[in-house]
Structures are given as C-alpha cells and as structure tokens.
Amino acid sequence: MSRIKSTFEKLTDQGRKALIPFITAGDPDPAMTLPLMRALVAGGADILELGVPFSDPMADGPTIQRASERALKHGMSLRQVMAIVREFRAGDADTPVVLMGYANPIEAMGTGAFAAEAGQAGVDGVLVVDYPPEECGEFASKLKAVGIDPIFLLAPTSTEERFGQVAAVGSGYIYYVSLTGVTGAGHLDLDEVARRIPVIRQKVGMPVGVGFGIRDAESARRIAAVADAVVIGSRIIEEIEKGPRERIAANVADFLRGIRGAMDELAVSREVVR
After folding, report:
1. Are 45 and 21 in contact (CB under 8 A)?
2. Domain assignment of residue 46, yes or no
3. N or C end of the chain: which has fewer CB within 10 A?
4. Does some domain include residue 274?
5. For 236-253, b where at least 16 C-beta lie within 10 A, e where not — what string?
6. Range in 84-98, 131-145, 172-186 the model is least confident about
7. What's the first-to-final CA gap in the chain, in angstroms?
8. Residue 177 dihedral angles phi and psi, to the nearest 5°
9. Contact 154, 196 (CB under 8 A)
10. CA pseudo-torsion sign 80, 84, 90, 95
C-alpha cells in the first residue's frame, strides 16, 4: 500500500482530516528546505507538497511566484529537489512527499528518467499542473510502475467528463482548486465547496483535498468539515518571507500547529456527539 493511501486510511480511522502544507524547494534558499520539511511534520503535516521551482509558474499567484524566483536565483534544479527528498526520506520513512510543478523540467529530464529517479528518492506523488489527464496516460503509467501516485487538479469549472478522465488515470487523492484564479487568491466560497466535494468524491473514488484561498485556522476548519484534506501554501510562504531566517522553521511549525489544532477540533467534537 502506498504511503498516501495508508495515511488517508489511518486518518479516517482516527476521524481526522489530512493537513497538506506546500513549500517551494529552495526557498528561501536550498539549505532551508530540509529543516522546513521537518518543521512542517513537527507542526502536524500529514503529507508534504514540495514545489519544483519553475520560471513561468502560470497557475501560481505572486507569493509562490516569488518563492520560485528566490529558489531559482540559488540555482535550484529538479535533481536537487530529488536529492532533498532522498535526504528527508532517510530520516522519515512515513510522511508522504508529493512533488508539484510544471511539465518543462520533467520533460527536460525525460519522463522515464524522472519517474525512475523520483521513485528511488522516495517521492510518493506527482502533480504536474500543465499535464491534463487525457494527455498523460503514458506518464501516469510510468509513475505507477515505480509506486508513485499521479495526482490531478479539479476546479469548480471541471466537467463530468473531466471527473472520469481523472478517475481513470489518477490515484492518491484529488487536489480540488476551490476557486478560479491563481494560488493565493483571497475569495473562498465555502458553501460552493461543500456542495461540490461529495459529487467529486463519488465520481472519482479518491480522497479530495481542497486548496487555494485557505489562509487561517477558521477557513481550514470549515474546509476540513467537508473535505478529506486541507492544502495550504501561499500563507506558509508568507511566513517564510517574514523571517528572520533563524526563526523561519519554528515560525512555520507554530503557524501549522494552529491549523492542525483547529482541524482536530472536528474529530473531538464528533467524539463528544457519539
């Protein structure tokens, strides 16, 4: 069983939801990425999304764009991202790591070489923003052959045909973009999310994580009430930007503990109702 599937099953047994924070590898500099990954786990993360920096991150808002720019200025590459995952995995055999990024760096490496190296490094899932499911069946097969889940995005505008395409090639979980626009956008229609999640879950047969627009404990708690996972990225990058450098990891862990605590209140309240 994959680490991602095992994580969701364990959380379901506990009546809890997954917390999935995102950071960009190499931001604010490559030496900080591993301490930040460990800090996120200490703060309550269940799955880590690690962004692969790219020069034209079209789906990302200004906050994550800045993170990519900082990482690229330090020379961060896809192979260096793999090396960081390998080092993280040497000290943490349980926490799933998902690489999130764009097609160009993967195609420059070669999809087969990428899948093989990612599998050896201990990557558990890959989400490529500009690989639609109907066009990457072969790539998804290469990932699955080495035990990696191909993860896909769905949005409020996604059709039932897209649901079927994702269900056919995806695994692990679905990343539901809770609003149209780029990462870090502020408007979050919680009622609409609550209406859409049961439909998506039924159609795709996978856990559904919700991201974009989640910025605080209250919005995370409300999303956790209807989704299987809460994905939070831009707000964490903002914590990294605040500095100072020697406090970044501790500040990120403290911020995430607040999110984790709010989400876990749901599990406690359900126990009380029982």
Report:
1. yes
2. yes
3. C
4. no
5. bbebbeeeeeeebbebbb
6. 172-186
7. 31
8. -80, 110
9. no
10. negative
CA distance 200 to 164: 10
Of the candidates 272, 266, 242, the one whose C-alpha atom is nearest the C-alpha of residue 254 is: 242
Q: H helices within the chain, ranges in order?
A: 3-14, 30-42, 62-73, 78-91, 103-109, 111-121, 137-145, 160-169, 190-204, 217-224, 234-242, 248-273
CATH of the domain at 40: 3.20.20.70
- Angle CA 129–132–133, to nearest 5: 125
Q: Which two tokens stand for residue 166?
A: 């994702």
CA distance 119 to 113: 10
Cβ-based neighbour number of residue 144 at 10 Å: 16
Name the strand (E) or helix (H) holding 128.
strand 125-128
User: What is the chain's mean pLDDT, rounded?
Assistant: 92
Looking at the domain assignment, is residue 160 inside a domain?
yes
How far is C-alpha 232 from the chain's CA centre?
8
The answer to the question of residue 104 being in a domain is yes
- As for how many domains the chain has, the answer is 1
Model-wide pTM > 0.90: yes
Q: Are strands 125-128 and 149-154 parallel, antiparallel or unpaired?
A: parallel
Domain that holds residue 160: 3-269
Residues with a catalytic annotation lie at 49, 60
**221, 180 contact by CB (below 8 A):** no
Look up tokens 């708690």; give the residue: 221
pLDDT of residue 261: 96
Q: Are 220 and 262 in contact (CB under 8 A)?
A: yes
Q: What is the pLDDT of residues 152-171, one digit of tens each?
A: 999 988 999 999 999 999 99
pLDDT at position 194, please?
87
Are 149 and 4 spatial neighbours (Cβ–Cβ below 8 Å)? yes
